[in-house]
Amino acid sequence: MKYKKDKSKIILECEDFDVYQTLNCGQCFRFFNLNKNKFIIIAKEKILEIEQVDKNKIFFNNCDTCDFENIWIDYFDLNRNYCEIKKILCIDSFLKQVIDFSPGIRILKQDFFETLISFIISQNNRIARIKKIIENISRVYGKKIKENFFSFPKFSDLVNLSEDEFRILKTGFRAKYIIDAIKKNYKFKNLKFLETQDIKKKLIEINGVGNKIANCVLLFSFSRYENFPVDVWIKRIIEKKYFDGNKKSVLEIEKFGIEKFGNLAGFAQQYLYNFAINNDI
């Protein structure tokens, strides 16, 4: 990775990073497409305009060196060698095909509370609707960063809301789960210092949070890459490609992913998920 400041932008030269692939593989929801190669991302109470200029060159527009080094390098996991990760995973011939389809995916490092609430909202929901609900919550209760752009609210901004107030924001049946997550927030201090299974146990104490949501939070917020979230797409592609189409339980699929891909299971999951949703698996 190399980068330099050029007037009001940072120019990044980096292999194995495609902005479109990274944002559109189901791990985050606070972004807007300006065109095929340019996006606005809202994260860490910041607005970033990011543009893929060519395969290995990306512009961080209206970004200074301080924000790039202290926020965006970590957020986009830019210090990690994804080439080495892919070399290890490509020992599996099918996974090599999957990785070659979207080799520029990186796993983002997102804020815990926003990730938790976002994936509670994601239950039985379409991406466009998930994004809209999160945007509703942010506009009403978040901090205004710039005209028409709002950060995701902090726990303290939502702590006194009722279930009805969340339902007004179109959260539907998920409102009661969001309320429970907020009520149990006191249990989540210093989670990052715990073992992965101990974090998962605490997350599953929230009503409406099961294995899949907990694993997503572990992967996309705590960078616990040994986790293998299983949804309908992952279940379908694993059954089809590794079990000759035979049906397996979600827990069996999760166990398979963890055992097969080890501490790189989360990376494998993202490549597989993106391949599945784009190839009608």
Q: Could you please describe the fold and organization of this structure?
A:
The chain has about 280 residues and is an alpha+beta fold. Among the domains are: about 10-90, TATA-Binding Protein; about 110-220, Endonuclease III, domain 1, CATH 1.10.340.30. Helices cover about 45% and strands about 15% of the residues. The protein contains 14 helices and eight strands. The chain has helices spanning about 20-25, 65-75, 80-90, 95-100, 110-120, 125-140, 155-160, 165-170, 175-185, 195-205, 210-220, 230-240, 250-260, 265-280, and strands spanning about 1-5, 10-15, 30-35, 40-45, 45-55, 55-60, 145, 150. Strands 1-2-6-5-4-3 form a six-stranded antiparallel beta sheet. A two-stranded antiparallel sheet has the order 7-8. A hairpin with a 2-residue loop joins strand 4 (about 40-45) and strand 5 (about 45-55). Helix 4 crosses helix 14, helix 5 packs antiparallel against helix 9 (about 175-185) and helix 10 (about 195-205) crosses helix 11 (about 210-220). The longest helix is centred in the middle third of the chain and has 15 residues, at about 125-140. It is globular.
